[in-house]
Write a structure and sequence with these properties.
By secondary structure, the protein is α/β, with parallel strands linked by helices. It folds into two domains: 194 residues, Alpha-Beta Complex (2-enoyl-CoA Hydratase, Chain A, domain 1), CATH 3.90.226.10; 47 residues, Lyase 2-enoyl-coa Hydratase, Chain  A, domain 2, CATH 1.10.12. Helix content is 48%, strand content 16%. The strands form two sheets. A six-stranded mixed beta sheet has the order 1-2-3-5-7-10, with helices on both faces. A four-stranded mixed beta sheet has the order 4-6-8-9. A hairpin with a 2-residue loop joins strand 1 and strand 2. Helix 4 packs across helix 5, helix 5 packs across helix 6 and helix 9 packs antiparallel against helix 10. Keywords: Lyase. One of its GO terms (molecular function) is 3-hydroxyacyl-CoA dehydratase activity. It is an enzyme of class 4 (lyase).
Length: 259
Amino acid sequence: MSFETILLGIEDGIATITLNRPPVNPLNSKLFRELSQAVGDLDADSSVRAVIITGSGEKAFAAGADISEMKNLTSVEMYRFCQVSLHTSNQIENMKKPTIAAINGLALGGGCELALTCDLRLASDKAKFGLPEITLGIIPGGGGTQRLPRLIGVSRAKELLFLGEMIDAVRAEQIGLVNRVVPYAELMQEAKKLARKLAAWSGHALGVLKGSVNKGINMNLHDALDFEMKNFILAFSSEDRREGFDAFMEKRKPKFNDR
């Protein structure tokens, strides 16, 4: 399927989605719809084992929502826009496949929020992050007030949200917003290297593991531990578990079949 606002490539089981509205890849309703279509297709494709999301060009991952589209919307139209973006963000967060945000440049507002939906975040040393909505007289509406505090803690999240200032990649790593900072020229190489590592594991086990973390974090500890135990039994009952145990005992690499 061809797209107008994103590029999609698949190589050796690794899918790469590139936000493609240069020079700064602003997020509009069409991009969210196309991203939703791509994510749905990739999640259903058994040959795809990991997904990377990045931005085109050298300037930005995504420098926020497309203000030129938003400024003339009525409240009802804005609500519909938010529904589309929320659906897409939830799709990415809940994919069975592991997802990596390869953040090449600016990740501001909705761009930062989009990165938060991914499981892991790699940033180039040129990347900058921020949630500047307060400077426009609004607040984040794509998960910034909810996903960010869960990731880096309430106090640090409030600092970013209340001040609306940008931080660089080094500071983002220090506060836990990104997993790792790499040289700009090596970003995609490192993202694909990480994706290949994830692709080597049981897709079934990774999906169960991801669901355990994503859903369990919103439960109380007692219910979350019970949820984890049930998911452990689900993974333990799989063919992949038997292959993993056999490979360990036989001192060889496992060959998982995602069952």
